[in-house]
Amino acid sequence: MSKESKFLSLVLRHKPEEIDLQLDEQGWAPIDVLLRKMKKAGRKISRHELEQIVATNDKKRFTISEDDQKIRAAQGHSIKVNLGLEPKVPPSELYHGTASATLDAIFTKGIIPGKRQQVHLSTDPTTAERVGQRHGRPTVLRIDCIAMHEAGYKFYRADNGVWLTDTVPAEFLGFGVVS
Predict the structure, then answer these.
(1) Domain of 133: which CATH number?
(2) Fewest beta carbons less than 10 Å away: which of 15, 97, 149, 163?
């Protein structure tokens, strides 16, 4: 990930105040304002460069609005935003990558979002394993999403395809550890 992409993640997901950027309640920022404030902060990029970052980001972290006037992070916020996503029926299984050192806590308390607003779930074990590698020796957990959904838990699908939920109670880890 380029340093510009990392900086965009920082200001659009965690610290918009870094460049005195105001996000609306759904996490959107006007592109012209973002570019102007980045320039003022010594991080000048052009509109074309911004569009290239969005188009080539391997995790599709950013979304440009349909009218091409605003940008936001697709998910992963540690600041309060309401992405405006509608609840969806999840697939029967989703996966969560984590470090094996966290398993005792997870099997006691379930999966909690930590510093993020919501728990992130992947559609395949390979992606989840890559996520888990960031935290140590990776472990992939399989989530019984249908049982969760039937118990009233809500699932959302972010613009980039990542599934989100507020928490995953330990009893829904019934399929066990994948790796």
Answers:
(1) 3.20.170.30
(2) 15
Using N-to-C axis directions, what is the helix angle for 31-40 and 47-56, rounded to 10°?
110
Considering its fold, how many domains does the chain have in total? 2
Structure token digits, residue 75: 């998910």
Question: What is the span of the domain harbouring residue 33?
Answer: 3-73
Residues 6+ apart with CB under 8 A from 164: 75, 85, 118, 119, 120, 121, 155, 156, 157, 158
In this structure, the answer to whether residues 138 and 106 fall within a common structural domain is: yes
Check pLDDT > 80 for residue 144.
Answer: yes
Distance (Å, whole) CA 32 – CA 42: 16
Mean pLDDT value across residues 141-145: 94
pLDDT(114) > 80: yes
